[in-house]
């Protein structure tokens, strides 16, 4: 499965920058570079970092710094070189071209990390976390990716797998040597372990929904009647005029989405068409879209106009949404700058906030309130799964664990139990990469960027 070609790619992003880094990995890495590199001083073999020139025949292309990592002490576990050149696309493309001309080839997407996995520098779950780490845009994204990369989530999976192996071997021995006087499997011990395993896997499955909400962003949807100031609130939250605001009811037809970060968390704010009964086609579509967005939201901001409102209607809509979607809802009385005083509605006591979207009053408090509503258990947890592949495998493991558990309860044969344990081992092994197929690896690593 491990391709022996020496490969090269740009490791930094394409475009102008202070420096660009070109990475070469494979047994021919050092000899390849020596064809086009002249050190400034005589090379001391103990030194890892060398200053010198990349040459195209005798022409100096660029002054570069070469960092060498001898196998197996490198990211890929192979001989690896990083050439840091000046960050001009013309320069790094010319160097890449010179390297390809010496006979090495361009790396496929994710090929460096795939080699790191195949050379046992990291397990599969860690390798997959590398791409999340690169893609992270907020503090919370980053922390999640880091815990995945450091393998915390998967340590327990490996422990589970090892315990299954222990049980499997005792059962297999007892099957093979049933005539002889060998230890019988201790099924009550296995049952206790299965209950713990079930709990642990269930916890990981539960973490997926929230883990992904964090990664994709917490969806915060602004709803309310026409003209109550939904678009104005969106603009105040994103701090620029993103949505059109006007005093004509029905201004927003389609929904408008913008991302902001608050306390390191990505919030995806969505402004919608006002909810009202209308015969106009386009507006009806907008209102339908609002309902769709509400059903996927984590937080709803329900806005009403402090000058014109009907408490009975607000309460009715509030309980409708609450009943239908059971989502966190924040009720907001907007435009309090023009209402004579801050509203106090007995019926809604403790459930709503006064703001002025137009004058940006109450906005920071509103953000704090949104943040306080979020379930932050998983933000700091180091056992969160983010990966759909892992989710599917864990679901299969859980159902197999259930089968083993009930099998034991119903006095199933050693053979059947052993075969189910092998199944669980197979699913768990596919998460960590202890069991892989070429197709699986190609599928995972092809999603990476080139140079990683
Ligand atoms: N005085 C005052 N006026 C506001 C406030 N917020 C919004 N408005 C005004 O209310 C009108 C409607 O604002 P929009 O933000 O377009 O309202 P909307 O809810 O998005 O309306 P539709 O998209 O039509 O459903 C505009 O004239 C705004 O300037 C506020 O806090 N105070
Ligand atoms: Mg609007």
From TrEMBL:
<feature type="binding site">
    <location>
        <position position="227"/>
    </location>
    <ligand>
        <name>K(+)</name>
    </ligand>
</feature>
<feature type="binding site">
    <location>
        <begin position="271"/>
        <end position="274"/>
    </location>
    <ligand>
        <name>GTP</name>
    </ligand>
</feature>
<dbReference type="GO" id="GO:0030488">
    <property type="term" value="P:tRNA methylation"/>
</dbReference>
<keyword id="KW-0819">tRNA processing</keyword>
<dbReference type="GO" id="GO:0002098">
    <property type="term" value="P:tRNA wobble uridine modification"/>
</dbReference>
<dbReference type="Pfam" id="PF01926">
    <property type="entry name" value="MMR_HSR1"/>
</dbReference>
<dbReference type="InterPro" id="IPR031168">
    <property type="entry name" value="G_TrmE"/>
</dbReference>
<dbReference type="GO" id="GO:0046872">
    <property type="term" value="F:metal ion binding"/>
</dbReference>
<keyword id="KW-0479">Metal-binding</keyword>
<feature type="binding site">
    <location>
        <begin position="227"/>
        <end position="232"/>
    </location>
    <ligand>
        <name>GTP</name>
    </ligand>
</feature>
<keyword id="KW-0963">Cytoplasm</keyword>
<keyword id="KW-0342">GTP-binding</keyword>
<feature type="binding site">
    <location>
        <position position="82"/>
    </location>
    <ligand>
        <name>(6S)-5-formyl-5,6,7,8-tetrahydrofolate</name>
    </ligand>
</feature>
<comment type="subunit">
    <text>Homodimer. Heterotetramer of two MnmE and two MnmG subunits.</text>
</comment>
<dbReference type="InterPro" id="IPR018948">
    <property type="entry name" value="GTP-bd_TrmE_N"/>
</dbReference>
<keyword id="KW-0547">Nucleotide-binding</keyword>
<dbReference type="InterPro" id="IPR006073">
    <property type="entry name" value="GTP-bd"/>
</dbReference>
<dbReference type="Pfam" id="PF10396">
    <property type="entry name" value="TrmE_N"/>
</dbReference>
<feature type="binding site">
    <location>
        <position position="121"/>
    </location>
    <ligand>
        <name>(6S)-5-formyl-5,6,7,8-tetrahydrofolate</name>
    </ligand>
</feature>
<dbReference type="GO" id="GO:0005525">
    <property type="term" value="F:GTP binding"/>
</dbReference>
<protein>
    <recommendedName>
        <fullName>tRNA modification GTPase MnmE</fullName>
        <ecNumber>3.6.-.-</ecNumber>
    </recommendedName>
</protein>
<dbReference type="GO" id="GO:0003924">
    <property type="term" value="F:GTPase activity"/>
</dbReference>
<dbReference type="InterPro" id="IPR027266">
    <property type="entry name" value="TrmE/GcvT-like"/>
</dbReference>
<feature type="binding site">
    <location>
        <position position="248"/>
    </location>
    <ligand>
        <name>K(+)</name>
    </ligand>
</feature>
<feature type="domain" description="TrmE-type G">
    <location>
        <begin position="217"/>
        <end position="375"/>
    </location>
</feature>
<dbReference type="InterPro" id="IPR025867">
    <property type="entry name" value="MnmE_helical"/>
</dbReference>
<dbReference type="InterPro" id="IPR027368">
    <property type="entry name" value="MnmE_dom2"/>
</dbReference>
<keyword id="KW-0378">Hydrolase</keyword>
<dbReference type="Pfam" id="PF12631">
    <property type="entry name" value="MnmE_helical"/>
</dbReference>
<dbReference type="InterPro" id="IPR004520">
    <property type="entry name" value="GTPase_MnmE"/>
</dbReference>
<dbReference type="InterPro" id="IPR005225">
    <property type="entry name" value="Small_GTP-bd"/>
</dbReference>
<keyword id="KW-0630">Potassium</keyword>
<feature type="binding site">
    <location>
        <position position="246"/>
    </location>
    <ligand>
        <name>K(+)</name>
    </ligand>
</feature>
<dbReference type="GO" id="GO:0005829">
    <property type="term" value="C:cytosol"/>
</dbReference>
<feature type="binding site">
    <location>
        <position position="252"/>
    </location>
    <ligand>
        <name>Mg(2+)</name>
    </ligand>
</feature>
<feature type="binding site">
    <location>
        <position position="452"/>
    </location>
    <ligand>
        <name>(6S)-5-formyl-5,6,7,8-tetrahydrofolate</name>
    </ligand>
</feature>
<feature type="binding site">
    <location>
        <position position="231"/>
    </location>
    <ligand>
        <name>Mg(2+)</name>
    </ligand>
</feature>
<comment type="similarity">
    <text>Belongs to the TRAFAC class TrmE-Era-EngA-EngB-Septin-like GTPase superfamily. TrmE GTPase family.</text>
</comment>
<keyword id="KW-0460">Magnesium</keyword>
<feature type="binding site">
    <location>
        <position position="251"/>
    </location>
    <ligand>
        <name>K(+)</name>
    </ligand>
</feature>
<dbReference type="InterPro" id="IPR027417">
    <property type="entry name" value="P-loop_NTPase"/>
</dbReference>
<comment type="function">
    <text>Exhibits a very high intrinsic GTPase hydrolysis rate. Involved in the addition of a carboxymethylaminomethyl (cmnm) group at the wobble position (U34) of certain tRNAs, forming tRNA-cmnm(5)s(2)U34.</text>
</comment>
């Amino acid at each position: 499965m491990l391709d022996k070609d020496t490969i090269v790619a740009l490791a930094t992003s394409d475009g102008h920058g202070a420096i660009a880094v070109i990475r070469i990995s494979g047994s021919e890495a050092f000899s390849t570079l020596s064809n086009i590199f002249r050190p400034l001083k005589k090379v001391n073999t103990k030194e890892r970092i060398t200053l010198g020139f990349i040459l195209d025949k005798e022409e100096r292309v660029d002054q570069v710094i070469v960092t060498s990592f001898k196998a197996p002490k490198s990211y890929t576990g192979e001989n690896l070189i990083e050439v840091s050149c000046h960050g001009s696309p013309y320069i790094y493309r010319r160097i890449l071209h010179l390297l390809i001309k010496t006979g090495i080839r361009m790396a496929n997407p994710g090929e460096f990390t795939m080699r790191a996995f195949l050379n046992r520098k990291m397990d599969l779950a860690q390798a997959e976390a590398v791409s999340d780490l690169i893609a992270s845009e907020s503090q919370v994204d980053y922390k999640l990716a880091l815990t995945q990369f450091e393998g915390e989530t998967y340590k327990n999976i490996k422990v589970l797998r090892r315990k299954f192996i222990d049980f499997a071997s005792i059962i297999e021995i007892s099957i093979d040597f049933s005539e002889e006087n060998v230890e019988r499997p201790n099924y009550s011990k296995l049952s206790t372990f299965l209950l713990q395993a079930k709990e642990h896997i269930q916890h990981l499955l539960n973490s997926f929904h929230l883990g992904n909400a964090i990664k994709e962003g917490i969806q915060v949807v602004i709803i309310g009647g026409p003209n109550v100031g939904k678009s104005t609130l969106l603009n105040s939250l994103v701090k620029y005029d993103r949505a059109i605001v006007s005093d004509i009811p029905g201004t927003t037809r389609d929904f408008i989405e913008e991302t902001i970060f608050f306390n390191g968390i990505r919030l995806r704010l969505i402004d919608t068409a006002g909810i009202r009964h209308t015969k106009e086609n386009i507006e009806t579509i907008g209102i339908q879209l609002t309902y769709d967005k509400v059903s996927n939201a984590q937080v709803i901001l329900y806005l009403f106009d402090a000058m014109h409102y009907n408490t009975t209607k607000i309460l009715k809509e509030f309980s409708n949404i609450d009943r239908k979607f059971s989502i966190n809802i924040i009720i907001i009385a907007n435009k309090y700058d023009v209402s004579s005083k801050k509203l106090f509605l007995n019926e809604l006591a403790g459930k709503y906030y006064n703001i002025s979207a137009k004058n940006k009053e109450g906005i920071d408090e509103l953000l704090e309130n949104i943040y306080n509503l979020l379930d932050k258990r998983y933000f700091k947890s180091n056992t969160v799964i983010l990966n759909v592949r892992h989710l599917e495998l864990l679901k299969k493991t859980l159902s197999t664990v259930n089968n083993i558990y009930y099998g034991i309860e119903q006095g199933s044969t050693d053979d059947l139990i052993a075969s189910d344990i092998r199944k669980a081992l197979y699913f768990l092994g596919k998460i960590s990469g202890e069991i892989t197929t070429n197709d699986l690896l190609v599928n995972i690593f092809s999603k990476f960027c080139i140079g990683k």
